[in-house]
Design goal:
3-stranded antiparallel beta sheet; Jelly Rolls; alpha+beta
Length: 207
């Protein structure tokens, strides 16, 4: 239901411009934040990424009350080349994408999300936070407020898929390794922390 209502709302916003960031003002809403990096091991079902960490930016987008934060996240991600956006929650079962990276912007509310699978880490995310998941990163919503709303988007190169099982993992591992590094950070652009954090470094194994 949330997804349907937000799809209708987004369509109306795009047609009328209401609620969307005014031209030239979006960049002033972005706050400089350090990249909090988390690395996870392959747990036998969730492979995670062998080299690149999950990146969390805390409170990196502050949207004035008169505008829609979901629209602001969409425009920010699109500005930096991350598209095919959606508005919804996060699935309540562990899953990952093997052929594409994903960014999650928390537009409203808060929730506890487990990243990395059963041996991963549970993080509390709230409005204004952003999580950037390299291909293979397990994620699962554990609890969320009633108003929890996420905006997801993807870099221009890659293909969406959804993996959950040990059987999926067999094909996923080589696909994850082939998924290329995006040219831009979805929040900070060409010179964002993600560009440095996702260089082709060797696996470190831990989290």
């Amino acid at each position: 239901m949330v997804q349907i209502l937000e799809t209708i709302k987004r369509t109306a916003e795009r047609l009328t411009g209401m609620g969307r960031p005014p031209h030239g003002e979006l960049s002033s809403w972005v706050r400089d934040r350090k990249a909090n990096a988390f690395r996870f091991r392959d747990d036998g079902i969730i492979p995670n990424h062998p080299r690149w960490p999950l990146i969390i930016y805390r409170g990196c987008l502050k949207v004035p009350d008169t505008y829609d934060p979901a629209a602001a996240f969409e425009d920010l991600f699109e500005k930096n080349g991350w598209g095919d956006s959606w508005r919804d929650g996060i699935y309540d079962y562990a899953h990952y994408h093997s052929r594409i990276h994903e960014v999650l912007g928390i537009a409203r509310g808060s929730g506890k999300v487990r990243f990395g699978g059963g041996r991963g880490r549970t993080l509390h995310l709230k409005a204004g936070d952003v999580a950037i998941l390299p291909a293979g990163t397990g994620h699962q919503s554990l609890t969320a407020s009633d108003d929890f709303l996420v905006v997801g988007a993807y870099p221009p190169v890659g293909t969406y898929d959804e993996c959950t099982t040990e059987e999926d993992r067999k094909k996923a591992i080589p696909a994850i390794a082939r998924t290329g590094r995006p040219r831009k950070d979805p929040v900070y652009g060409s010179n964002g922390p993600l560009v440095e954090a996702w260089k082709n470094k060797k696996s470190n194994g831990g989290h």
